[in-house]
Write a structure and sequence with these properties.
The chain is an alpha/beta fold and 281 residues long. 45% of the residues lie in helices and 16% in strands. It has two domains: 163 residues, Rossmann fold, CATH 3.40.50.1860; 112 residues, Rossmann fold (3-Layer(aba) Sandwich). It contains twelve helices and ten strands. Helix 3 links the parallel strand 3 and strand 4. Helix 4 crosses helix 10 and helix 8 packs across helix 9.
């Protein structure tokens, strides 16, 4: 049975990539909601509706666990999905928050993310659960996602925008910075230059893959051998709600595991209502 991974678009590929690296025996079904991206500017109710539709799509493909590889969906929809879903679910916020608490020396933690993730206060909430005395400083960075998706990873414009976003956080004396959007690891070097060598960068994509591995092992769901695949059956399957060709090109620039194919599906055919008792099994 595969692991289901979903995101509002392409950013969650950084989580999928880490799962591939850390759990090479696992199959993956990835869904990117490219027709409705971005989630960061949408309401909690809308993100929850979208997430339920995607969860139904993944459950239809018999996944054994689901990774919500989107900070906004993790902030807005994770509690409901955890309660309703018949398989284990993990988001990207808690693993990142936990690691930040382990890394900080002065208790001053910075977070860069979308407006929705910052407004949700989820990183602050989880950090304070672990380290009540920590000071958390969050900065919304709405321009970084489009710059990443335009491929401007090493561009003076991206450098300048990143420096401006980080200025206020550095003023607060942070020693740890959470890259609270799955797009941001793709510009880690740029963020590192703007933050400086003394700041520890936290990549929730990596931390989520490691926590997922531990969770699957605890539940005896971790695959200990390569999956048996029929001829022409890929280990990793990718689905999108729009722009399959563009997604495939971008995915191939991120994930170096052979030629990827992506298939467009109509996510609107799936219900956005809470999962019923019958669906939960």
């Amino acid at each position: 049975m595969p692991i289901g991974v979903f995101d509002s678009g392409i950013g969650g590929l950084t989580v999928a990539r880490e799962i591939m690296r850390q759990m090479p025996n696992e199959k993956i079904v990835y869904f990117g909601d490219t027709a409705r991206v971005p989630y960061g500017s949408k309401s909690r109710e809308t993100v929850a509706r979208y997430s339920r539709q995607i969860v139904r799509f993944l459950l239809e493909r018999k996944v054994k666990a689901i990774a919500i590889a989107c900070n906004t969906a993790s902030a807005y929809a994770l509690p409901e999905i955890e309660r309703e879903c018949p398989v284990p679910v993990i988001g990207v916020i808690r693993p990142g928050a936990r690691t930040a608490c382990e890394c900080t020396k002065n208790g001053r933690i910075g977070v860069i993310a979308t407006r929705a993730t910052v407004s949700s206060g989820s990183y602050t909430e989880f950090i304070h659960q672990i380290m009540p005395g920590a000071q958390v400083f969050a900065q919304a960075c709405p321009l970084l996602v489009p710059l990443v998706e335009e491929g401007l990873w090493e561009d003076p414009v991206t450098d300048e925008i990143t420096r401006r976003y980080l200025a206020s956080l550095l003023h607060h004396g942070i020693d740890t910075l959470i890259m609270g959007c799955t797009h941001y690891p793709l510009i880690r070097k740029t963020i590192g230059r703007a933050a400086g060598e003394t700041i520890s960068l936290i990549n929730p994509a990596y931390e989520t893959a490691m926590e997922l591995r531990s969770m699957l092992a605890d539940l005896n769901l971790l695959s200990d051998h390569r999956p048996a695949l029929g001829q022409g059956v890929p280990q990793y399957r990718f689905y999108v709600s729009d722009m399959a060709e563009q997604f495939q090109q971008f995915a191939n620039s991120i994930i170096k595991y052979g030629i990827l194919a992506s298939e467009k599906i109509d996510i609107h055919t799936y219900s956005s209502a809470p999962l019923s008792k019958e669906e939960k099994g």
